[in-house]
Amino acid sequence: MTQPPNPPYGAPDPYGQQPPQQPPAYGYGAPGGQPGYGAPTGGPFFINYLGQEQGPIEFGQLAQMAVTGQLKADTAVRSADSQQYVLAKDVPGLFSDKEWVMTLIFTWLLGGLGIDRFYLGYTGLGIAKLLTCGGLGIWSLIDAILVTLRKVPDAQGRPLR
Q1: Is-contact 84 115, C-beta < 8 A?
Q2: Residue ranges of the alpha helices (H) in 57-99?
Q3: Measured on CA atoms in the order 113, 115, 117, 118, is the torsion positive or negative?
Q4: How far is CA 103 from its chain centroid?
Q5: Helix H or strand E segment including 55
Q6: Residue 46 and residue 58: Cα distance in Å, rounded?
Q7: How far apart (Å, rounded) are the C-alpha atoms in residues 159 and 69?
Q8: Residue 109: helix, strand or coil by DSSP?
Q9: For the whole prediction, is pTM greater than 0.90?
Q10: Residue range 86-144, pLDDT digits in tens
Q11: Which of 31, 76, 99, 116 is the most exposed place for a label (fewest CB within 10 A)?
């Protein structure tokens, strides 16, 4: 008994079965322009800055504005789909999930032990800071100044809330 020839991949099956479908791609770098993990799907955004609405701004540009400091965490932002403004820190993926106040407390009280670096996700730097007792205090002092000035992002490079 001979087997019928297999149809080429993706071709309609002569017996009425559907060809297997590709699973949808998710995550960073997904082909087809899919939004990355944590990215909102609301499309372009509008910023309420000094009572004036600016936009439309794409999510990537909005994230870049957050990294450069042009967009603050308490800036009102809305998506094109919604008329309701939310704070920029509440838009997933724009700002870190780490709080600046908690980082500041960890830096000033436990900075010599590297707890602030562990909290931000810099595990290697946290271990180095722990083993050197905060770089004999010099590294801890520099970190305290940088965190106070909001110059230290989290391990993913996103600004703190």
Answers
A1: no
A2: 59-68
A3: positive
A4: 18
A5: strand 52-57
A6: 9
A7: 8
A8: helix
A9: no
A10: 888 888 888 888 999 999 999 999 999 999 999 999 999 999 999 999 999 999 999 99
A11: 31
